[in-house]
Amino acid sequence: MAMQKKPMDEFEEEFVKLEIEAIASKYKFDESLRGKWMLFFNHDYMDDMWAKAVELYSAGELPGIISIKTSTAAPCERSGTTEYGAIRFTCGPHTDRERILQYGQQLVKKMQYFNVDFGFVAYKTDGQSRIGTKATGATKNYLYRMPVPTYDHLDQRSGNRTEPPIEVPSRMWTRQWVTEVVGDYIEDPAVLEDYARWTTHFTKGTPHDSAWVRACRLYRSGELEDVAYMQTSTAKPAPGKENVKEGVIFFYSRDNLSPSKLQQCGKNLVQKLNYSSRHRELLCGSYKTGRTWVVLCRVPTLE
Question: Which protein family is it in (predicted)?
Fold first, then answer.
């Protein structure tokens, strides 16, 4: 295979694409049903991550991926930032939700992907791409989203990562949320809307920091059964929330768990975190039915 051009050495063409016929021909469906998972990287790491994508794709290690395409150093009107670029992993058909999510889960795992801001990776159809991007005025420009971890302190390089250190909420001022995801704990890949949420509150500062560090250690060691991923608020307040004195930690479980499994999950959280609440109960809720928050489970907290 010819040497691939480095994206950050290209200043005229907006994209560099690779499609290997022997790989693409394995996946037969109408081209109108194509879409792509979008992985964003700081420009400092684009060359390394593109090289990794090329290596994995060429070796046939990215199931379902028909072709890959990367943005370059060339100006692009559709991009909302000059700091980040995107690598697009084309797959389909986008109507096969389960298959697309499985492809996405394997892709995130193989690329060891995390991002700085979003806490999710998005899949968009080619039709949505033609409508535009957020930079060009489009509102919703994704079909599916899956959770991924957020890390500020890690360089996104093509080599293997060691276990990342734990972000401390009170020291995080660059974004409002930190997301912790261990992909191996998500046996059944799902979109963000398919998760229910346990909500815990802690006084800002040491109590919140300690609870998050403990939760991360328990989660990474597999002791928080049926918790797929977690999020915490940080020192950066949301607009209008500057005077809030509590930090929040969310624990996400699949909303299709049986009531008994949800109940056990909640009891385990209370026990492992030694959690108490002035409301004397821990709630698990979901927006599955629309905009209305529905409580799926309640468990008593410690006194």
Answer: Belongs to the UPF0696 family.
